[in-house]
Amino acid sequence: MNLPWRSIPLWLGALCLLAIGVAALAAPVLVGSDPLAMVARPYLWPGQNAAHWLGTDMLGRDLWSGLVYGARVSLRIGLEAGVCTALLGLAIGCLAGYFGGWVDNLLMRVTELFQIMPSLIFTLVLVIILGPRVDTLVLGIAATAWPNVARLARGEAQRLAGMEFVQAARVIGMSEARILWVHILPNALMPVLAMLAMLVGHAILTEAALAFLGLSDPNVVSWGSMIGAGRDVLRTAWYMTALPGLAIFFTVAALGLLGGALNDWLNPRRGGLQ
Amino acid sequence: MSVLSVEGLCVRYAGQQNPAVDDLSFSVEAGQTLALVGESGSGKSTTGFAILGLLPAQAQVRARQLAFAGQNLLGLSENALCAVRGGGIGMVFQDALSALNPLMTVGEQIAEAVRLHHPVSRAEARARALALLKRVRIAEAQRRLDEYPHRLSGGMRQRVVIAMALAGEPRMLIADEPTTALDVTIQAQILRLLADLQAEAGLALLLITHDLGVVAEMADRVLVMRHGRCLEQRDVLDLFNAPQHPYTRQLLAACPPVGSPV
Fold first, then answer.
1. Could you name the CATH architecture of B1-88+172-256?
2. What is the ipTM of this complex?
3. Predicted pLDDT at A263
């Protein structure tokens, strides 16, 4: 189980994410102003004013401050939604794959029910009904993204259920619940972990898409809400959408690189583990 | 009294015409080894799983008697069966690599098996795991405790599997092709280990195999199976000296005698 230390994508992705993560954590140190406060003349272009080097938006809010504080919200939503998606999918997939029979049938029909709905529209409806807040955004994203994870985990659990160590566990008198917890879950977790980076990237993109449509938590700044706000002045002041857009691009690209490298490492079918 | 006594065991899979096991009767005494012999698909393994109640739901198991240490196993609740599995009857499998969880260390897995049947602390379970590893004669047991299965050789893995089977201090072992996946020298070591353990604890051993060499070395009694039926059941010397059933004679003839030109 050696990490591919020489892998360039791994390093590039990890360093990029680390930088963004540190910026998000150190937001109060990095920027002096509240991202929602009007601190200067509106429509300042980047580089026009040294005190606000990335410029200001149409209400005179500092864009650099918005980007750094927005990283907090976007990363938080991405991480929370990604982890929720993984846990939900893992639980349902493992139950279905391990027990098989009617449990499998029932859970897989439910999974398909979720899969046949267009996911963005489904998330949209959920967020509209529940009201756009950070926690409802997380819920809305996780509620539509889990079926893929469930299918992956189900396949793994089915494979594992046929393995002799599971049979051996039954033979030494382990209960079904304990077998699921000790043998199935940890083994099915590996491929899902490899998928986690992609899930986080997907969640950040979905949050941005929702915010672009005006569905973002009005009390906090996220990259998505910055894009949503800048949409109206796209032709005259395109930098207001381009800057948070670039932030999303780099974050999701870094997650993609990291996810690919982790997949190579953790995926047993590529001969990484063992 | 026999440790295990089986009478008229029938197993039938739903939708199949012929039963997988048909009217099988045998018993195993403490300290004795009974070998179930037969070709693939003759119902040997099915018999082993039927005893432990581990066949899938579509298999129908009936028997006039299926008793372990005087306790009827048919109709036991799942919880009571869990106590018998491992606690009363241990089982050793053919493929020792896939019989171990790749993500848990050897020590953790044996300790887990210990704690299933004995309410002991983690430290105590670990100490017992170490004792079990020593009992199955693994070299450098202390170091092996914290190693993952893929770092061990095939023979060592099989020893670990046997240690796990012994964790619940069973009175009987079912060994399903325990040496088939191993090379010849390791086979001999594992068979000797099983024989020693049997002598130490007076274990009853049900040995499932197609290897007549193993049978000659280990068994007291032999039961020859074909198509789920018992063809003959006799003491091992009688069987090798004067096989009665034509199929047994064929089976013995298929094995080249020692010293014959290849």
1. 3-Layer(aba) Sandwich (3.40)
2. 0.74
3. 79
